[in-house]
Specification:
By secondary structure, the protein is an alpha+beta fold. The chain has helices spanning 5-10, 15-25, 243-246, 250-260, 310-324, 338-356, 358-378, 398-414, 416-430, 437-448, 453-459, and strands spanning 38-49, 56-67, 71-77, 82-88, 91-92, 95-98, 101-110, 115-124, 130-134, 140-144, 165-174, 178-181, 184-190, 195-206, 213-216, 219-221, 231-235, 269-273, 280-281, 286-289, 329-331, 433-435, 467-475, 480-487, 498-504, 507-513, 519-525, 532-535, 544-547. The chain binds zinc ion.
């Protein structure tokens, strides 16, 4: 998902922000829900909404699940809606619904590999996850917004990103409204009572936080011309005239990611404007963007390629990149979240590089560096973070911006050919499934034939960034320049080779400092007096530098 870190920084002192932020932080304590007893393989969710879209009048979730080991209890995550009945393989069973869990005791324990069918009927108004509220035009609307583990407020589930499954939604809503959901639209049935039932099926396993529906009086727009995948935009009517322009980067982003990574993983892509806590939320094949996305911003910087505010271009690219990274290749654990957010941030940057040019890309990465440093000043923790308890606090400068920089450094070090070959292999091996940091590590080692042990251990599993304190001395009689580079950051040294460029009246000379510890002293041949020394002028390393 997309968080506006610039806006967050600017508004930090505002009371309104603090209130919103503490509200964001109030839920979701860190818990790594293990998939060690059972796992879902398919959800078939039927929801009937009332006329004003303020309540789910009846719901039924049919889950195909499989026992992972000997199983006597199915413990589903389920919030506060009222459970009416539970059956197992079509026979009623007793259940206990309390404290966010729906516990179903099996009449007879089963062994690993046994497939079971659980049916839960329920009703009510979800406390969270499915947002029933007015859209920006004041019309009734319903939109799913589940990250990080809020889907269980409206669907009994195993609410962890790695518990991926396919899903079918059957949504019965007033005939005036449109319904969108993950996957392909199978059918729309009209009833005599003034409702329509919309059936969508996502045939590719997706993480539960990406399972959504959107219901409301949307304007539906479809861009013309051949598109990489069927594209449609569901927006409040007041955004109808701008949506085709505002979402214009969508097809180019889909094409770039297809070219760099692999085929688009889903049946279609819907872009929705509706209720989400985030700037954008990457639900598989049905992305939701914040209701203010297209509000006029008179002082906005405009994209040269699309003529829209650059922040709109950025969030569209970010959420679409997530379809590959996060949705298709899903983080195995919360500690691996950067495989979702760092990738989406970096691939949005690569889109900006292609469409807005190198200067725009450089400033995008520079802003990312500043956000990462700001976060690090208050939190000396690794990207691979096992500590942070509040999952919302994982939406931070480590997982987004520093994660993007890790990819940028790997691309700079390995070169485009090797980097993208490694990324494509990683994607191919883990698509429609999950991946860990070690999966990425090994894919890039395999592609490059070099050890990246030191790199991953220092950059991903340890905290901080290099702060180089550099001094130099020209020794004219010896025809050499001596460069001393001291790393003054707390913690261990970074052993990344550091390019330096020495400028003389004869031009520029490039050298490489190869630290073996915190202090590196190296001599380079140089017969001309240096006019200046630049440390990593092409910004291939996330760093701070002082040259004396
Ligand atoms: Zn994101």
């Amino acid at each position: 998902m997309y968080v506006n870190f610039q806006t967050m920084a600017r508004k930090f002192s505002l009371v309104a922000f603090i209130v919103v932020f503490s509200w964001l932080s109030a839920f979701a304590l860190r818990r790594e829900r293990l998939i060690d007893t059972w796992r879902p393989t398919h959800y078939n969710v039927s929801l009937t909404l009332n006329e004003q879209l303020t309540e789910i009048t009846s719901a039924q979730a049919d889950l195909d699940i499989v026992a992972v080991k000997n199983l006597s209890l199915v413990d589903m995550d389920f919030g506060e809606m009222t459970t009416d009945s539970v059956s197992l393989n079509n026979s009623p069973v007793t259940f206990l619904h309390r404290n966010g869990k729906l516990e179903i005791t099996l009449p007879n324990p089963v062994g690993p590999g046994t497939k079971l069918h659980v049916t839960v009927t329920y009703h009510g108004k979800p406390r969270d996850g499915l947002i029933l509220s007015a859209d920006k035009d004041g019309k009734p609307s319903v939109v799913g917004d589940n990250w990080p583990d809020r889907v269980h407020h409206w669907i009994p589930s195993l609410d962890h990103p790695s518990a991926k499954a396919t899903v079918t939604f059957n949504v019965t809503a007033p005939a005036r409204d449109l319904v969108v959901a993950n996957g392909q639209l199978n059918k729309v049935q009209t009833s005599d009572s003034g409702t329509k039932t919309w059936t969508y099926t996502e045939t590719v396993p997706i993480p539960p936080y990406c399972m959504i529906i959107g219901v409301g009086d949307f304007a539906k727009l479809e861009p013309s011309g051949p598109m990489l995948t069927p594209l449609s935009y569901y927006v409040p009517h007041s955004d109808g005239s701008y949506a085709l322009k505002g979402f214009a980067p969508a097809d180019p982003v889909l094409r770039l990611l297809t070219q760099l990574v692999g085929p688009y993983p889903y049946e279609k892509l819907a872009m929705i404007i509706g209720a989400t806590r985030f700037g954008g939320m990457e639900n598989s094949s049905a992305i939701v963007f914040t209701t203010t996305l297209f509000n006029p911003k008179p002082d906005a910087r405009l994209s040269t390629a699309f003529g829209i505010p650059t922040n709109v271009e950025d969030v569209v690219a970010h959420e679409i990149a997530h379809q590959w990274f996060g949705d298709s290749v899903t983080e195995s654990t919360w500690s691996d979240l950067w495989l979702s957010e760092g990738f989406a941030t970096y691939f949005a940057g690569l889109f900006i590089l292609k469409y807005e040019g190198d200067d725009a890309f450089q400033s995008y990465m520079q802003r990312a560096a500043e956000t990462a440093f700001t976060y690090e000043k208050k939190n000396r923790i690794p990207i691979h973070d096992r500590e942070t308890e509040d999952l919302f606090k994982l939406l931070n400068g480590n997982n987004y911006q520093k994660g993007a920089w890790v990819l940028h450094m790997l691309r700079s070090r390995l070169g485009d050919d090797t980097f993208y070959r490694g990324i494509r292999e990683y994607y191919k091996k883990h698509k429609d499934s999950t991946a860990s940091t070690e999966d990425l590590h090994s894919a890039l080692e395999k592609a490059s034939g070099q050890s990246l042990q030191q790199f991953f251990s220092r950059w991903v599993y340890d905290a901080g960034h290099p702060q180089y304190d550099v001094s130099w001395k020209w020794l004219p009689k010896e025809g050499r320049v001596q460069v001393s580079m001291n790393q003054v950051q707390p913690g261990k040294a970074f052993l990344d080779p550091v390019p330096i460029v020495v400028t003389t009246s004869l031009g520029k000379r490039k050298f490489l400092i190869t630290p073996e510890g915190k202090l590196a002293k190296q001599m380079f041949p140089l017969n001309e007096r240096p006019a200046g020394i630049a440390i990593d002028p092409e910004n291939t390393i996330l760093k701070e530098v002082t040259v004396r």
